[in-house]
Amino acid sequence: MRAITRFVLWTLGVTIVLALAAGTAGYSFRAAQGEMPDNYQANAVYVPNGVVTTSQPLASQAGLAVLQRGGNAIDAAVTAAAVLSVVEPYMTGIGGDMFAMVWLEKEQRLVGINGSGHAGALMTLDKVADRARVPDEGARSITLPGALSGWATLLEAHGTISLAEALAPAIALAEQGFPVSATTAAEWALFESKVSWDAGARVTFLVDGERTPGVGEWFRNADYANTLKLIAREGVQVMYGGELGERIAARVQELGGYLTAADFARYVARWVEPLSVDYKAYRLWELPPNGQGVAALEMLKILEPFDLAAMQHNSVEYLHHLIEAKKLAYADLEHFVGDPEFMQVSPEQLLSEQAIARRRAHIEPDQAMRHADPDPSLTASETTYLSTADSEGNMVSLINSLAGSFGSGVVVPGTGFALQNRGVGLSVQPGRANTVAPGRKPFHTIIPGFVTKEDAHGRQRPWLSFGIVGGPQQPQAHVQVLLNMVVFGMDVQQALDAPRFRHWEGNSVSFEQGIPEETVDRLMSMGHAPQNPVLATAHSFFLGNSRGLTFGGGQAVMKANRGYVAGSDSRRDGAAAAH
To answer: Which residues lie across from 75 on neighbouring strands?
Structure first.
């Protein structure tokens, strides 16, 4: 343990380059939040060797230390993800799921991993059929957590350090504690009620079992440190087939949930082939279902023929076209996408030229659609994101989530981590790819993004590893950030910080402050309905009131001719740490 403590003290003392964030605010509630002025702008970080960019400086520093000791981007990504589970426990952890894409420079290829779990063996449609939807908290919302298997699978296949080494900084921070940042304290407080009713959660995440930690207050999680030590000592099999998984399953069943020990014993994260579409000389890559990445690809293809540059950035015409493309893509997403083994429509069908042309034809240049239906011809879903890159050219785009804030709100006593509520991604409507059934994978909102660019020889080369958190905001934010760079020439930091919109459902749209009032007024005259983001959605359990969660907070690493350029969203506590 002393060695681990020394490692973390060294980690926190290394020389680093940081792009630190202070938030820009969301449309209609900046005054109440007291945010940074409109002209605040962080700078992109220019990197000679390697970089780790996350939503929290301590995680970025821990990942950087791995790179500086000779580890690769995969090692750094898992290390940073583990630290995030300590310092942002309401967003991520081993009680949730993960997805990642990895550019392997020596092999010149992009690989994907799906570390998402599934419904428990006891979860049947008849048990939830009398409900409008699966509960968004409590034991009945819990699905099998796959993140830990995903971390281990990444390291085993492409890492250079052991899982125990990757967990060491997280163990030390959980055991010794850390001062809570202002952003984290504010968001933690939003979710106090979520961890007040369950005995395990209350003891773990409330100070003296009564309140959330304040700004600068030291927070320790000895139970989580002990859980991570157990995993470091015995390996992931302690969860997937061992005592930890058995304890979780027993407690979940005691509370009325559906997981069994056998669910844990037979689970393993799986490798998947990323999907892609071309846009100009670039290619956007997303992971295949059960995630929502296909919606970003569909949006981009719908928008491809339009002269977006001539429309000008965040103009009335530009925002209108992006919002309408989003409506069409998400209508298909909601109806067709879920567990890939049960989808009746393939991603290739959704992205075919014929299907995209039919969808594009629904866009009117000056009138908002009141409602977008799925394409009928095709039938005859809270989070931390991080990106890493190393001096060898490897790049990782990784996202990890508990679904909602503190997930289900359930903590098995003595474990120190919340279990996800990803059951909300299952449907009580029969006949869908994500209809409730034993072993069914839920529809997922968390998606890592990656972009390659065609070189002079026609080969695809890595260009951008990026992602944006925020539940259903993610595909529409992926498209906005990518277009900021490709069409409007912004650097990674500018592209992340530029004001965004978020379409909810129907014609409800939230616009971030920085989009002119007259632009919003004209969009309203076309049928769009601007909304305060706090009031706009029934999915508020994903979001709370945080601007960074509402409009999405992200990170990005761009490959330069030599080295990298990195950014971290100013809406959160983000930091890009480099050497």
So the answer is: none
Radius of gyration of the chain (CA): 22
Q: What is the pLDDT of residue 564?
A: 97
DSSP letter at 263 equals H
Percent of residues in the chain assigned helix, strand, coil, to nearest 5: 40, 20, 45
Give tens-digit pLDDT for 358-410. 999 999 999 999 877 665 443 333 688 999 999 999 999 999 999 989 999 99
Is residue 25 predicted with pLDDT exceeding 80?
A: no
DSSP state of 576: E
Residues 411-460: tens digit of each pLDDT: 999 999 999 999 999 999 888 888 999 999 999 989 999 999 998 888 89
Q: Kindly tell me the sign of the dihedral angle through the C-alpha atoms of 106, 110, 116, 121.
A: negative
Min mean pLDDT across 36-45, 118-127, 315-324 is at 36-45
The amino acid at residue 63 is G
- Distance of alpha carbon 538 from alpha carbon 471, whole angstroms: 12
Give the pLDDT of residue 272.
97
What the block records as the tokens of 6 is 């020394």
CA distance 47 to 76: 16
Transcribe 202-215 into DSSP letters.
HHHHSBTTTB---T
> What is the C-alpha separation between 149 and 167, in angstroms, rounded?
13
CB 378 within 8 A of CB 350: yes
Residues 539 and 519: beta-carbon distance below 8 Å: no
Q: Which two tokens stand for residue 395?
A: 């790049």
Judged by phi (left if over 0) then psi (alpha if -120 to 50, else beta), residue 552 lies in: left
Residue with tokens 């992006």: 322
Active site residues: 383
CA distance 257 to 261: 12
**Residue 292 φ/ψ, nearest 5 degrees:** -95, 15
Q: How far apart are CA 469 and CA 92, in angstroms?
A: 11
Q: What angle do CA 440, 441, 446 make, to 5 degrees?
A: 165
pTM for the full predicted model: 0.89
- The per-residue b/e assignment along 513-530, b for 16 or more CB within 10 angstroms, e otherwise, is bbbeeeebebbeebebeb
Closest by Cα among 351, 334, 335, 253 to 300: 351
Identify which of 169, 148, 27 has the alpha carbon closest to the alpha carbon of residue 98.
Answer: 148
> Residue length, the chain?
579
163-176 and 147-158 helices, crossing angle to 10°: 130
Report the mean per-residue pLDDT for the chain. 88
The three-state secondary structure class of 565 is: strand
Query: Got the DSSP string for 41-82?
Result: ---PEEESS-EEEESSHHHHHHHHHHHHTT--HHHHHHHHHH
**Per-residue pLDDT tens over the stretch 267-309:** 999 999 999 999 999 999 999 999 999 999 999 999 999 999 9
Residue 46: CB atoms within 10 A of its CB come to: 15
Q: Which residues pair with 397 in a beta bridge?
A: 101, 387
Rounded Cα–Cα distance for residues 386 and 407 (Å): 19
Looking at residue 197, what is its pLDDT? 94
pLDDT on residue 308: 98
Of 319, 330, 301, 222, give the one whose Cα is nearest residue 524: 319
